[in-house]
Fold these 4 entries.
Entry 1:
Amino acid sequence: MKEELTTKMHSEFSVSEETEMRLRAGNIWNNFKDAPKSDQLRLCKVYGITWEQAMKYKTFWLSLSK
């Protein structure tokens, strides 16, 4: 019974892969938008996303910082 509750609790606090990718991209665009592209590419690897995935959300995150 305890394991069932734990599994249910974990599912309530999980996010989709798409949301996870969007948040990782947000870290790059919110904190390193003015960094050289080479640094941004390195950060994509650190955050476990591709450059294309980061670029998918660039406009979204930059529009929030205006």
Entry 2:
Amino acid sequence: MRRSNGVFSPQERKTALWALLMAGLIAAMGMVVQQWSQPSVGPGGIEAYMTAPAPGVLDAQPIN
């Protein structure tokens, strides 16, 4: 009679299952936190990114 599959012990399989469950829980909690929080825009806020264009620089235009 065989008591195991010869690869992993029952304790190792149980530990692996707990590790997978914990990794899934951490990933799910990260997704929840990401949806509830605003993206980081740095110390200056969004206003730091709103600057006037450099003189002589044109926006990209399609080639006709």
Entry 3:
Amino acid sequence: MRRSKGVFSPRERKTALWALLMAGLIAAMGMVIQQWSQPSVGPGGIEAYMTADAPGVLDARPIA
């Protein structure tokens, strides 16, 4: 039987702390990179998404 009072050993707690810190760092770096980079609009650029309005359609237009 174990003699420690906790469920996890000190080494397991240290490993879990490092894992949480690294996951937080990866998430923070992803948010920073997302803020610095422009969204991809494909090879045609934004012009590829602009189309002529369909005749008679008033409520389903893209915001331009």
Entry 4:
Amino acid sequence: MKTIIKCLILLAMCNSMLISCGSKKTAEEKPVAGTDGNKYVPYEERTGGESVVYFTRKLSAEGLIAAYEKVNGNITGKVGVKLHTGEPHGPNIIPREWVKALMEKDIKGGNIIETNTYYEGDRYTTDKHRETLKVNGWTFCPVDIMDEEDTVTLPVKGGKWFKKMSVGSHLKNYNSMVALTHFKGHTQGGFGGSNKNIGIGCADGRIGKAWIHTTPGQDDQWDIKEEEFMERMTESTKSVIDFFGKHVTYVNVMRNMSVSCDCEGVAAEPVVTPNVGILSSTDILAIDQACVDLIYAMTADEHKAMVERIETRHGLRQLSYMKELGMGNNRYKLIDLDNGGKEITVAEAVKNLKPFVTTGK
């Protein structure tokens, strides 16, 4: 009897230890967000390789085409152009005439690709979304709302928040993707570049975007913020660019840069940051980093609003996390397409910018 009692006591102790160890392991494995998303890292403090980023001051269809043609070598097969098509009458989206000219010249047979929104509004359902597309003039080529029918998951390699991400099922119908991005501020992300365009823009409207934005059981739809939000969004992006491999490229248009995202439409904050130009690269980190560097290289008056938006939202964590995940380089050569392919600094690129004035669509 004593032997049985001793065995039961030992068994209980072992079970207690296992439970304790299991709880400790679970606590250790719970993801912890990084820090310093509000701290800008100067170029000279960065390490690692350098990528190439092309730059033109020509904010026009011609400038867009010139930038794209420098980075389209691996864009083959069926092409999806990931574009933020905007809320109804959105004043700051990339001009449709520029996109039409680009697609007619260089992306014949391509589709604009989008997903429905996570918030209720004019792009929340596919029917409403299609009406908004008509209002905004996206009628010159097919627009594929990728989560119109279903969703699929893509693996997130090396992610700490996700092992997979839910995206619109039509994404897998494409061989290549062009991320054509209006670079601007963002209410939650601090800034919206290629990373935001893909990470939020390809996640489907009901599942993927909820995983990125909301802790389950919370009343606040947007409770995930700052560094954790940047990391979740970036992991979503990684799932998509890993899917396309070398068959993805990036073009960022630095024009009409409100601190508000295009998802705010006519309610966006007035633009006070000068227009800069168009950048292109095959490196997603390098192009978003270059855009941020151009903002920081402006005068204090020129960049005050945008820097405040980026830093208060801890948006710079997008860049550091992309580097941690091996998504690209934060060092680059900036090549001036307006001056024979000369390498220039960001300070030279933003020298003598003109104050912003409203331009036509």
